[in-house]
Write a structure and sequence with these properties.
With 202 residues, the chain is of the alpha+beta class. The chain contains nine helices and five strands, in the order βββαββαααααααα. A five-stranded antiparallel sheet has the order 3-2-1-4-5. The protein is globular, with a radius of gyration of 18 Å.
């Protein structure tokens, strides 16, 4: 898996990018949210990447932030949503605003994005509201307040879910332990300690 690329931007023609990495030209597609952050061709850039393997092609997608790539990956897990719709969503709405739409079930805003019909919007809300859980609300609040994205909390939640906790349970544990600038590892440790303590008190 290609995790990121760092190289010279050769060409930018939305949604396509060409990046020279050590003499090898990588073709990528990116959402407009990433294009807005790019420097002019000839500049050094770094992109978080995601590789989609299809029967007839390998498609590489680039993102300016880890938050964008994380949401792109979550969108691909929604039934009926492929890379094209995922790119349209990231191009048409900021990550924080999208997460707020999911949190409050705002289908009307989602259907205004080109390529997103009502059925797709409703499916996004249904499939993502429990999966994103509290980290979605936390990221939305951070974006609304102008603060940094809740990357550590989101990563800690993903780790807890990978360990077998339900999304809602992971959210509750992380809410109990607070954040106070803690690292992902600290949040995971605190949450596991809280879970063990709760089990021990039963």
């Amino acid at each position: 898996m290609i995790g990121f690329l760092r190289g010279r931007l050769v060409r930018r023609r939305p949604p396509a990018l060409l990046v020279d990495v050590g003499g090898v030209g990588y073709e990528l597609e990116a959402p407009m949210s990433t294009f807005y952050r790019l420097a002019e061709p000839g500049s050094e850039i770094e992109l978080h990447t995601h590789l989609v393997v299809k029967e007839d092609a390998h498609l590489l997608f680039g993102f300016a932030t880890e938050e964008e790539r994380r949401l792109f990956r979550e969108l691909l897990r929604v039934s009926g949503v492929g890379p094209k719709i995922a790119l349209a969503l990231l191009s048409g709405i900021e990550v924080g605003a999208f997460l707020r739409c999911i949190e409050v079930e705002d289908v009307a805003t989602l259907v205004r994005i080109p390529g997103v019909g009502r059925r797709t919007a409703e499916r996004l809300v249904v499939e993502l509201r429990d999966r994103l859980g509290q980290p979605a609300a936390g990221s939305a609040a951070a974006a609304a307040s102008g603060g940094r994205p809740a990357d550590a909390r989101a990563e800690a939640s993903a780790a807890l879910i990978a360990l077998g906790y339900r999304p809602a349970e992971a959210a509750r544990l992380l809410q109990q332990v607070g954040e106070d600038g803690a690292s992902t590892e600290d949040l995971i440790r605190r949450a596991l300690q809280a879970a063990v303590g709760r089990e021990g008190s039963r």
